[in-house]
Amino acid sequence: MDFSSLPLFAFFKAKPQAPAGRSRAPRATGYTLTVEEFTVDVRRKPVRTLRLSLRPADGAVRVSAPLRLSEKAVRAFVASHVDWIRAQRARLARVERPKVPALLDGSSVAFLGRALPLNIVRGGQRALARFEADGTLLLRLPEQAPPAHGDLALRRCLARELLGAARLRLPRWESALGVRCTRLKVRPMRSRWGSCATTRGVITLSTELAHRDPAFLDYILLHELAHLLEANHGPRFKALLDRHLPDWRALRRSLNGRNPD
Fold first, then answer.
1. pLDDT value at position 54?
2. What is residue 91's three-state secondary structure?
3. pLDDT value at residue 4
4. Where does 108-255 sit in CATH, by number?
5. What is the residue extent of each domain of the chain?
6. Residue 141 buriedness (CB in 10 A; 0-12 / 13-18 / 19+)
7. If phi over 0 gives left and psi between -120 and 50 gives alpha, with beta otherwise, what is residue 98?
8. Is the pTM of the predicted complex or chain greater than 0.70?
9. 65 near 74, Cβ under 8 Å?
10. Could you tell me the sign of the dihedral formed by the alpha carbons of 135, 100, 211, 208, in that order?
11. More confidently predicted of 91 and 255
């Protein structure tokens, strides 16, 4: 999903103007340039529009640019959004992002609004994690396994459980909108909460949603399914969300660490 309407994960698009003269784009497909105080990671791609985004993890500035667009045009595009970049970096610095905690027996892991006690057991041949019937999260680690193995097992477990929870919620929103998702996936996503491949009906969710309240999962599912009816975020798209989830704007603000207007 393109979060063009969400400040923390916004994408700016601009149709490139034909460069004056015969200015040629750099041969390299990836390089960096400096615009004011920002180092910008530029990726040349076979696209028609410029895209500007910030990586939530560290605020890195990224631009996807058409192959033959002049570097002067790329610089001008970034320069026209420096105020937005500064504002979003400040907001990113204020957002507290839940993470899988240090692997300490008795600590807890956030999952869809619940704090699951973590029970670590040593033994076995490989690291694995699973939800127990008593509401705890079991992590089994080989005796000499490094913490990274346990961290990976936890993340895979949470991703599986998130996918299961999403599959249970999906039919409600499919029925409400009269559309069908052909495939539902979860994976780590750096700058989006979800995406929708409208031509194939495939929806992908960010694994970060595992650490959020289930109301946010419902919002993202509805948002992505709505793209099967409306490709952009125009008035008709927003009307769909208003009809089926009237508080979606408040959820969007909270999901992205913004205070209410």
1. 81
2. helix
3. 40
4. 3.30.2010.10
5. 7-94, 108-255
6. buried
7. beta
8. no
9. yes
10. negative
11. 255
CA distances from 13 to 44, 48, 125, 232, 249 (A): 15, 10, 50, 12, 22
Task: List the end-to-end C-alpha distance of the chain, in Å, as a whole number.
Answer: 23
Using DSSP, state whether 36 is helix, strand or coil.
Answer: coil
- Encoded tokens for 113: 């609004």
> Quick one: angle between helices 82-94 and 71-79, nearest 10?
60
> CA separation (Å) from 224 to 54, 179, 200, 239, 253?
21, 11, 13, 14, 17
Q: What is the pLDDT of residue 35?
A: 86
Residue with the larger pLDDT of the pair 248 and 9? 248
- Those residues with Cβ within 8 angstroms of residue 259's Cβ, 6 or more apart along the chain or in another chain: 253
- State how far the Cα of 175 lies from the Cα of 55, in Å rounded to an integer: 34
Dihedral angle over CA of 156, 159, 160, 165, nearest 10:
160
The whole-number pLDDT of residue 204 equals 95
Distance, CA of 229 to CA of 142 (rounded, Å): 49
Q: Where are the beta strands (DSSP E) in 75-193?
A: 108-111, 114-122, 128-131, 137-141, 183-187
Mean pLDDT, rounded, for 224-236: 92
Say how far apart CA 261 and CA 259 lie, in whole Å: 6
Give the H or E element holding residue 222. Answer: helix 214-226
Both tokens of 238, joined, read: 């927003």
* Residue 158 backbone dihedrals phi, psi, to 5 degrees: -65, -35
Summarised one tens digit per residue, pLDDT across range 200-217 is 999 999 999 999 999 999
Query: How many CB atoms are closer than 10 A to CB 125?
Result: 8
Which sign does the torsion angle of CA 154, 155, 159, 160 carry? negative
Strands (E), the chain: 12-14, 30-35, 38-45, 50-54, 61-66, 108-111, 114-122, 128-131, 137-141, 183-187, 194-197, 202-206
